[in-house]
Amino acid sequence: MDDTAAAEAPTVTYEWLARPSRPPRHPQPVPAGLAAGGASTTTREARVSAPLTRLPGTGRAPAAEHMTDVTLDDVLEELAEGKADCFDTYDECAVLAGKARKLRDALAELAEELAVSHNVIGRFFSAAMARLSESMERVARKAEAMRGESLTAAESVETAHDAMHDAYRPVQQATADAGLYTPSARIHNED
After folding, report:
1. Is the separation of the CB atoms in 150 and 89 below 8 Å?
2. Residue 153 contacts by C-beta under 8 Å, 6 or more apart in sequence?
3. Quick check: 11 and 37 in contact, CB under 8 A?
4. Whole-number Å distance between alpha carbons of 132 and 159
5. How far is CA 19 from CA 32, 91, 105, in A?
6. How far apart are CA 123 and CA 120, in angstroms?
7. pLDDT tens digits, residue range 53-75?
8. How many CB atoms lie within 10 A of CB 79?
9. What distances in angstroms separate CA 186 from CA 53, 64, 69, 164, one per listed residue?
């Protein structure tokens, strides 16, 4: 790239919408026409986080680093979906193991039929058919192992779901009952 091409490259200017004590992870571009020198800017989707809301009676909002787009209900819903996915995998693994064993048996029957009816008895063919049958048995064993692991994963996800619900739902409810915007950090309430 020569010097003239570098000088003609468009300038992209970013401006922070809010200046918290730490800058946000993704800067927002300056709207078109406001950039220095009239250069074009890139566009990004609008922020998905909730706008900062003033706390009632204080005229202040929580600091930006304390705001999040993640809610307890979102997390609990994702964990419930994860548990359902684990159970689906559990069922699919049982089907996979059954089909692999059925294919293994069909390959053994085919090898027998070819040997008896069509005189296909070569060393390489017999070894290849035996190897295919063994591969299907390995697939079936791996599927059975995966089935057990997916059940363990479902139990772990359910444990995480219940632990999050038990730990955070009472805090969320107490915060709402007290009419607070956000609960205080647990460290502030420790003795």
Report:
1. yes
2. 86, 89
3. yes
4. 40
5. 21, 51, 68
6. 9
7. 444 555 566 677 767 788 889 99
8. 19
9. 22, 19, 20, 15
